[in-house]
Design brief:
- The protein is an all-alpha fold.
- Among the domains are: about 55 residues; about 40 residues, no CATH class.
- Helices cover about 65% and strands about 0% of the residues.
- The chain is built from 8 helices and no strands.
- Helix 1 crosses helix 2 and helix 1 runs parallel beside helix 3.
- About 5% of the residues are buried.
């Protein structure tokens, strides 16, 4: 059985591996000489060299659209974001902006202004109601007489008449009238 050593490279294999760098001019002088000597005797490597040169020429003829290509690729690579995740991300960014000290102070001042304005608007928009029993007492009155809610008009007129006072008179009520007023 013949001894096959597959790990050893032949001069053909070595020259064939160096062809792409030979075409682009990136070989050092020793390797370049090796490839040129091999090309003189190997038709297969000459065809490979012609193919490599066509590839380089085609590559140079292309005008790569790097930016648009990268944008398309990035669009395909980035995970799809649901509208909820997008809204959460925007809310977090908004909150981060609000938490900066100057912005936070401005937001707090605006909030306080809105609260004070709302309170003032509510206070000014309330109608000023006056019920019959809620008027302020006249400054000249000495006594205010109060009756039970179930007292009729005839009864309170009688009580005031017993005290010799008319309902619209400002004279003092006698003691007997005051006692009857408490019934």
């Amino acid at each position: 059985m013949p001894d096959l050593n597959l790990n050893e490279e032949t001069p053909h294999d070595e020259a064939e591996e160096l062809l792409p760098w030979y075409v682009t001019g990136q070989l050092d002088p020793r390797e370049r000489t090796l490839v040129e000597q091999h090309l003189l005797s190997c038709a297969r490597c000459q065809r490979q060299l012609a193919f490599e040169r066509r590839m380089v020429d085609e590559f140079h003829a292309l005008t790569p659209e790097i930016d648009s290509g990268w944008a398309r690729l990035r669009h395909r690579l980035e995970p799809r974001v649901s509208w909820r995740d997008g809204a959460k991300r925007q809310a977090a960014a908004f909150w981060q902006q609000l938490s900066r000290p100057p912005v936070a102070m401005l937001a707090a001042a605006q909030f306080a202004f809105v609260i004070l304005s709302a309170g003032l608007l509510l206070a000014l928009s309330r109608p000023d109601y006056r019920a019959l029993g809620s008027s302020t007492a006249p400054a000249a009155a000495n006594v205010i007489v109060m009756f039970r809610p179930d007292t009729t008009e005839v009864e309170w007129r009688g009580i005031l008449a017993d005290g010799c006072v008319s309902p619209f008179d400002s004279r003092p009520v006698a003691a007997s009238g005051a006692q009857e007023a408490t019934r």
